[in-house]
Amino acid sequence: MAQVVFTPNLQRHVSCPPAVADAQSVRAALDLVFAANPQLRSYVVDEQGRLRKHVNVYVNDRMVNDRVSLSDAVAPNDEIFVFQALSGG
Questions:
Q1: Coil vs helix vs strand at 2
Q2: 47 exposed, middle or buried (CB, 10 Å; 0-12, 13-18, 19+)?
Q3: If one looks up domain 2-84 in CATH, what number appears?
């Protein structure tokens, strides 16, 4: 199963411990995590289910290509890393 990990910055706003998901796409993996943790959904995706502009998702070392439907493929040993982009200086 793929492991879904969230940045500590995101964890400051909502509880989101690492999770595992038996899924073949980023969307399916995140939907499984959101089913167990509904409050997390609004921090990661907007009302249409697209990634929020300040959120990035990587599968292993590759940023997802499909930010709208999150159809990027996920293999059983992959790590999905979700984080909020930070700005400032």
A1: strand
A2: exposed
A3: 3.10.20.30
